[in-house]
Write a structure and sequence with these properties.
three-stranded mixed beta sheet; 6 helices; alpha+beta; 192 residues; elongated; binds zinc ion
Length: 192
């Protein structure tokens, strides 16, 4: 069964950027996204588009860093997101907590696709941490999109596999492949 992500976005609890990007990645990975109880209009089509966009963002961060150099296809993606957000209302909201008053912004997304379109813009934005952290698990049976993060125990960020389990699984199967090859070679050269 497909997993679901239920986003709640109200002026009392505006959705933060990280939650929007997380929902977009979850949707690309197969989840259905709801916004304030309303389901996406065409989740299959939007997933296909989103996966293609995320692949492009991954490519882009490894290539030329200027938007101009990325050509027409990127502008099309960006413009599509902007069209979805054409009538987006943004209202400042404040919260008074223990540390005093803090200002936030409530973005009143009308549809799930508009919210995900905003997430796509956040992933493209060089000033945000999301695009450069975007990775896709190399374990073939997984292939999940995720944001690379450093382990709290230290060491480099997990840019190749989404979890330590998938790293281990992939390495095991690579090792068994090499072992099989070695066995085959040995039996081929063995004198009859
Ligand atoms: Zn994985």
């Amino acid at each position: 069964m497909a997993t679901t992500v239920k986003l709640v976005n109200t002026s009392g609890a505006p959705l933060p950027d990280g939650a929007l990007v997380g929902a977009a990645l979850a949707h690309a990975n197969g989840a259905e996204v709801y916004l304030n109880g309303v389901r996406q209009a065409d989740p299959l089509a939007s997933r296909g588009r989103l996966v293609a966009v995320l692949e492009r963002i991954r490519e882009a961060h490894g290539l030329d860093p200027t938007i101009e150099a990325r050509g027409h296809a990127f502008r099309e993606i960006l413009d599509q997101s902007l069209r979805l957000l054409g009538r987006l209302e943004v209202r400042p909201v404040y919260e008074i907590g223990a540390g005093g008053l803090s200002l936030d912004y409530f973005r009143d997304f009308l549809t799930v696709d508009a919210a995900l379109g905003y997430a796509v813009l956040l992933l493209f934005d060089q000033g945000q941490p999301f695009g450069t952290a975007l990775c896709r698990c190399r374990l073939v049976r997984c292939g999940r999109f995720y944001l690379a993060a450093r382990s709290p125990q230290g060491g480099p960020a997990n840019r190749t596999y989404c979890t330590p389990e998938h790293r281990a699984e992939s390495h095991d199967s690579a090792e068994s492949r090499t072992a099989r090859k070695r066995r085959r070679k040995r039996s081929a050269t063995r004198p009859k």
